[in-house]
Amino acid sequence: MCRRLGFALLVGVLAAALVLPPAASAQDESSSGWNPFSFLRSSFSSLRSTAARSFDAVKNTTLSVAHKVVRFAVVRSTEDEICYRIIGCFNLKAPWFTLSRPLPAPKSPDSINVEFFLYTRESASRFTIPSDVELSLQGSTFDGAKRTFFLVHGFLNSGNDEWMAKLKDAILGQVDGNVFIVNWGGGAIDPNYLQAASNTRVVGREIARLGRTLIQQHGAAAKDMHIIGHSLGAHISGYAARNITNVGRVTGMDPAGPGFEALSRTVRLNKNCATFVDALHTNARPLTQLGFGIMQTVAHVDFYLNGGEFQPGCATPSVEMPSSLTDLISLPVTALNELVSCSHTRSYHVFTEAIANTTCRFWGHKTSVARQRLKWRKSVAAEVPVKEGPCRSGKCVPIGLDTPDFPARGSFAVVTGSDSPYCLQERSKDGQSLEQLRILGYVD
Ligand SMILES: *[C@@H]1O[C@H](CO)[C@@H](O)[C@H](O)[C@H]1NC(C)=O
Ligand SMILES: *[C@@H]1O[C@H](CO)[C@@H](O)[C@H](O)[C@H]1NC(C)=O
Ligand SMILES: *[C@@H]1O[C@H](CO)[C@@H](O)[C@H](O)[C@H]1NC(C)=O
Which family does the entry's similarity section mention (predicted)? Predict the structure, then answer.
């Protein structure tokens, strides 16, 4: 607890430092009577209430944990690393913890309490595997000879959310495989985004532990594994795949931006995580402009939907713009929910529809990403896909389970409707969608 309070104070100081961008401060002060001291006061009072909530949560967890065996007890904790039984150590130095990434240490595996819900065509009801010392599949319908999918949710979600069940159904509708829904609600439902972002490392290790168990004891192959994650879950998927090694595919659905964008690739989803990595970008804007998704390319195939920043049919969130990463801590959960809704969640709606609907395809048209290097405080659309030739074979890739079968790699623009079903009517590769892209100026 002392560590936690210490952290809260540290964050306060960092928050103060981070909201004083050299370029913006002079302007802000004159135009809106901006006052660093009033900011500090309000920042500290909201940090106090966040801290108070955290103390409650810690007390509650401690009470419930007291009655069961602590399976993943801390075996070592220093300033530089924290180590747990079974899942090992986590480095708490750069690049995991830096001035621009002021994250607390990950919570314990016991309090995050990852669970795996297994579904197959043989068994419609779920088989739950708790993250115990032994990961037992006894009595399940898991078949190591088949493909295996892991679905991983993000911030403020849990494995019981409806969208995960829909994605699971879409996959089982097309593939006779094993689908694990990964529930890490105990680490994701935390008003402190920075804490949830840190907890992702523990979840990645837990998935990797199950993945390796499936390979070593149940005849599964890493190349037949496909890990699919939304938001923070996209980075978890990358960590898990890296730890398993040689995983066939990772799909990031609007990978989270805050705390990951433009930082060391070690901390985020990247091309080296799996044999094939693809990503859907639906809310790729800076946090300060109400974006929650990562803007930079992270994959072999990066799809930018409708320009990648905001999605058609989504209202602009009415949330007050956070001015820094640490500001996120003081936003109420309702505001956070609004911030991460609509455009950010469109990624999994489209991916699910792309798998379920075999007659209409979401074609990606090759584009060049305008600017790779991000100018954080400067401009809005840091990366808008622009101008590319007509859609020829080798220049088009569809969203879906068969994306890797198409040879083209790079960044791709996709146009969708504003409502479900999002897929625009069946057309040829050079048909209606190309016309739409042309109107929007993405292709010649
Ligand atoms: C802790 O438990 C108390 C009583 O069960 C409950 O009222 C409170 O909301 C809980 N706090 C948290 C943060 O879960
Ligand atoms: C993979 O996970 C194990 C523990 O589960 C850990 O000891 C090891 O350091 C991890 N490897 C990498 C590359 O993260
Ligand atoms: C596939 O998408 C098209 C276009 O959106 C839609 O008209 C059709 O009903 C969808 N089919 C299925 C099976 O969902």
Answer: Belongs to the AB hydrolase superfamily. Lipase family.
Q: Residue-wise pLDDT tens for the chain (444 aa)?
A: 334 434 443 343 333 333 323 333 333 323 333 333 333 333 333 444 444 455 455 544 544 444 445 778 787 788 899 999 899 999 999 999 998 899 999 999 999 999 999 999 998 799 999 888 889 999 999 999 999 999 999 999 999 999 999 999 999 999 999 999 999 999 999 889 999 999 999 999 999 999 999 999 999 999 999 999 999 999 999 999 999 999 999 999 999 999 999 899 999 999 999 999 999 999 988 777 778 899 889 999 999 888 788 888 887 766 666 777 777 777 776 766 666 778 999 999 999 999 999 888 888 888 765 433 333 333 333 334 433 344 556 778 899 999 999 888 998 888 888 889 998 764 444 444 555 555 555 544
Distance CA 271, CA 256 (A): 16
Active-site residue numbers?
231, 254, 344
Q: Which residues contact 217 (CB under 8 A, 6 or more apart)?
A: none
Distance from the alpha carbon of residue 96 to the mean position of ligand 2, in angstroms:
15
On whether the CB atoms of residues 175 and 164 are closer than 8 A, the answer is: no
DSSP H or E run through 118: strand 115-119
Closest listed residue to residue 416, CA positions, set 365, 368, 340: 365
Architecture of domain 112-440: 3-Layer(aba) Sandwich (3.40)
Among the bound ligands, name the one nearest to the CA of residue 50: 1
Angstrom distance (rounded) from CA 122 to CA 120: 5
240 Cβ closer than 6 Å to some ligand 2 atom: no
> To test the ligand 3 pocket, which listed residue (166, 360, 424, 433) has its Cβ within 8 A of the most ligand atoms?
360
Q: End-to-end CA distance of the chain: give it in Å, rounded.
A: 59
| Domain locations in the chain as residue ranges | 112-440
Q: Are strands 396-398 and 410-414 parallel, antiparallel or unpaired?
A: unpaired
Atom 12 in ligand 3: which residue has the minimum CA distance? 357
Ligand 3 atom at minimum distance from 359 CA: 1
